[in-house]
Amino acid sequence: MSFGNLNIIDPLLRAIALEGYTTPTPIQMLAIPPLLEGKDLLGIAQTGTGKTAAFVLPILQRMSAERRASRPGSPRVLVLAPTRELAAQIGQSFATYGKFLRFRQLVIFGGVRQGPQVNMLSRGVDILVATPGRLLDLMNQGYIELKGVEFFVLDEIDRMLDMGFIRDVKRIVSALPEKHSSLFFSATLTRETGELAQSLLNDPVHVQASPSACTLDSIDQQVFFVDQNSKNSLLLDLLLKEDMKRVLVFARTKHRADKVAQMLSKNRIQSDAIHGNKSQNQRTKTMERFRSGRIRVLVATDIAARGIDIDDITHVVNYDLPNEPESYVHRIGRTGRAGASGNAFSFCSAEERSFLKDIERLTREKIEEREHKYHSPRAKAATGADAKPLSPARSRVTRVQQRPVGGKVPGKQATSHRISHPAKVAC
Fold first, then answer.
1. Which overall architecture, per CATH, does domain 219-387 show?
2. Partners of 250 in the beta sheet?
3. Which of 93, 97, 148, 266 is the one with CA 20 to 30 A from 424?
4. What pLDDT, on the 0 to 100 scale, is given for residue 48?
């Protein structure tokens, strides 16, 4: 099967060839034909499987079949993405594949001045890629109206729901014309995702490139049982001994991401953190340094990592296991892209043991255990309450129990701070 077999027009085929692609991926083979026929679609595909091209190519082809001038502030295509990074990646895909079609496009998101975005809108754009917040801001100010939208794409709908964008999405949908094509894409199919698609799509074609909870076959997955306070040492040891060329590390919180990046930098490993508290300018510069290889390790939170679309990430490290098993699928899909092999290392402390169990239940895979010098029998054997994060009540009891009688430790100056649980690190 080649792209030519999908009846792709010559200007798009030339752009595809320049990128070095010859064979469509499964999601592209499944999605492109019905989209060229004008059908609504719900596509289930993991990240890294070519889903962006699966909707960009047919949209560009259908636009080219009926060329018309766009009016100021009234795009023909609207794509909603949950994060700034993902919006930028989608915009780049439209530019890459549409280089011979001369459509005008714009990516808008918060965290930057709106002036340049408003100026471009006033000149008219054919394709608008946006995050919900900035789009609604500009709609409310009268700079954008959606009555001319012919194609509406909601990408990573599952993450949209996780991030609480459902009300914003429904407000935006209510401003669309009655007649338009809708395309929804998600890495996982949950009850909430299905209900939203059913309410907003018109007799959609449902395509699924692979089971929604299955991880990519090209990724070698390993779990490391380790105490929380040994994770830094384990990460350093792996980075010094393993052939880890370009590494994406996931931390649960913004503060933890900063701390891990600082620790690595102090140990002369080029690294930086990316998360929601960073300005857009900082995030863009960090991504450019990671993409160019000036940064070896990028430490990220789940939300900030959306849109990281780099083919040669050799390793994903789950410094903290996600509390939602679906996020594990999203995370490790950042490696093993474009036919390459990849590696996913997961650190599991005792308090994360239940998270690992949920991941293995969802993926229906037993993750291979990796022996190492920081191995924790306690983490491996944790069950029941010991296999879950401390609740606030249990955490208070633990701190009280561990506080020395009278507030003093023999031979040491008394201190006023509480002693935290030894297997937990403040984050």
1. 3-Layer(aba) Sandwich (3.40)
2. 300, 318
3. 266
4. 66
pLDDT of residue 47: 66
Say how many CA atoms lie within 13 Å of 193 toward its Cβ.
22
Tokens 């060229």 -> residue: 36
What's the CA angle centered on 279, arms 274 and 280, to 5 degrees?
Answer: 85
275 with 301: CB under 8 angstroms?
yes
User: What is the Cα–Cα distance from 145 to 128, expressed in whole angstroms?
Assistant: 11
Return the H-helix or E-strand segment holding 355.
helix 353-363
Distance CA 64, CA 98 (A): 10
Structure-token pair, residue 18: 């320049």
Instruction: Name the more confident of 393 and 256.
Output: 256
Name the one residue in this structure whose structure tokens are 């990460």.
235
The domain segmentation of the chain, as residue ranges, is 3-208, 219-387
**What pTM, to 2 d.p., does this model score?**
0.66
pLDDT in tens, 104-118: 999 999 888 899 999
Q: Which CATH class is domain 3-208?
A: alpha beta
Pairing of strands 127-130, 247-250: unpaired
CB atoms within 10 A of CB 162: 19
CA distance 368 to 260: 25
The pLDDT, as a whole number, for residue 338 is 63
Query: What do you get for the CA distance between the two ends of the chain, in Å?
Result: 49
How does pLDDT run across 399-427, given as a tens digit for each residue? 344 444 344 333 333 332 222 222 322 22
